[in-house]
């Protein structure tokens, strides 16, 4: 009888492990930057190559940093939501236009609307590597003191904003 | 039949073309060998079953370029690994470094084997202790 109990316990533990593990997406990588300083960068703007935009521009503010490109289908999908979020003026959205063509990017912003304070033009992906970017779209939540609070992989939508971003923003506000 | 075989052979050979690293090779063969070792050990995070040596996506090309740049700046293998893990996490290396959190990964096979061996020994010993008559009765 004792042997059966041991087996049942072992089985239950295994089932527990599978129940948790199989729910996760094995392709998704949590960011290595969580709770660490967000990368510093300065890049030419997409719309104005003569001026630059970078981390210095949003120091002291809680912001979203959105990674996007014109070749990225998910970016097209989330764009309308980003426009909505920007219109609500809840949080400034900065962008890094990753591995893209400048004229395509400008056309995109003009045709679809520009929710960003500014888009940085990361042509060779060097800044993207510092952020640990491995695909688009990705959206980072950066705290006022320059720490990465969260990274969302995939298109942004309202449920992600409510469940993942707002609580962390609120927690950061109350901690200050 | 022969044509089918030739077709299959042709397809197999063409697969090798996928792995071409179009970057210029290092002049120093030792550096080049070290570079090729390094890029074989870094996972391409987009096609997660390939290393960046074989992968064609531009993240792989970007990472190869960065590794090349770091090698030209005389960074050591450990420093290059640190650079990548700092940004992408332990998963980016095919051989994760032996830190606290990855030790479970390294030790798990040995541990499970050990547990299995103990259980096996216990069962065998239990069996050996039973007198032969009981086994006959149970059967």
**Termini separation of chain A (Å)?**
57 Å
What is the mean pLDDT of chain A?
92
* Tally of individual helices of chain A: 5
Distance between the termini of chain B: 56 Å
Described by the principal axes of the CA atoms, the overall outline of chain B is: flat
Number of strands of chain A: 7
Supply the helix-strand structural class of chain A.
Answer: alpha/beta
**Cα shape of chain A:** elongated
Low-confidence parts of chain A, pLDDT < 50 over ≥5 residues?
none
- Largest sheet, strands/sense/barrel of chain B: none
The biggest sheet of chain A amounts to: 5 strands, mixed
| Proportion of beta-strand residues of chain A | 15-25%
- Percentage of residues in strands of chain B: under 5%
Poorly predicted tracts of residues of chain B: none
Sketch the topology of chain B as an H/E string, one letter per element: HHHHHH
Number of strand segments of chain B: 0
Helix content of chain A: 25-40%
Q: Structural class of the helices, strands and pairings of chain B? A: mainly alpha
Radius of gyration of chain B, Cα only, in angstroms?
Answer: 25 Å
Structural commentary:
The complex is a heterodimer of chains A (176) and B (139). Chain A is of the alpha/beta class and 176 residues long. Chain A is built from 5 helices and 7 strands. Chain A has a 5-stranded mixed beta sheet. In chain A, strand 1 (42-44) and strand 2 (52-54) form a beta hairpin. The termini of chain A are far apart. By secondary structure, chain B is mostly helical. Chain B has helices spanning 2-15, 29-40, 58-72, 77-88, 100-129, 132-138. In chain B, helix 2 crosses helix 3 (58-72). The termini of chain B are far apart. Chains A and B meet through helix 4 of A and helix 3 and helix 4 of B.
């Amino acid at each position: 009888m004792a042997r059966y109990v041991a087996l049942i316990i072992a089985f239950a533990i295994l089932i527990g492990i599978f129940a948790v593990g199989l729910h996760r997406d094995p392709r998704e990588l949590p960011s290595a930057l969580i709770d660490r300083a967000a990368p510093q960068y300065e890049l030419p703007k997409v719309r104005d190559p003569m001026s630059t935009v970078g981390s210095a521009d949003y120091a002291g503010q809680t912001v979203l940093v959105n990674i996007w490109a014109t070749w990225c289908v998910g970016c097209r999908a989330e764009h309308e939501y980003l426009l909505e979020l920007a219109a609500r003026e809840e949080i400034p959205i900065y962008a890094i236009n990753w591995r893209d063509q400048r004229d395509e990017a400008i056309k995109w912003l003009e045709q679809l609307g520009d929710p960003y304070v500014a888009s940085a033009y990361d042509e060779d992906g060097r800044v993207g590597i510092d952020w640990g970017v491995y695909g688009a779209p990705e959206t980072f939540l950066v705290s006022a003191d320059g720490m990465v609070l969260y990274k969302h992989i995939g298109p942004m939508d309202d449920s992600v904003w409510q469940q993942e971003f707002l609580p962390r923003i609120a927690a950061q506000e109350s901690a200050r | 039949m022969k044509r089918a075989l030739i077709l299959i052979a042709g397809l197999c050979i063409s697969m090798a073309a996928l792995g071409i690293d179009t970057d210029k090779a290092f002049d120093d063969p030792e550096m080049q060998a070290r570079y090729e070792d390094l890029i074989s050990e870094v996972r391409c995070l987009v096609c997660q079953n390939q290393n960046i040596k074989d992968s064609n996506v531009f993240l792989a090309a970007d990472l190869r370029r960065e590794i090349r740049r770091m090698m030209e700046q005389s960074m050591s293998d450990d420093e290059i690994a640190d650079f990548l893990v700092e940004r992408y996490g332990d998963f980016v290396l095919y051989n994760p470094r032996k830190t606290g959190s990855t030790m479970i990964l390294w030790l798990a096979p040995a541990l499970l084997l050990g547990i299995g061996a103990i259980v096996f020994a216990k069962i065998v010993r239990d069996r050996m202790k039973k007198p032969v008559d009981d086994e006959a009765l149970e059967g």
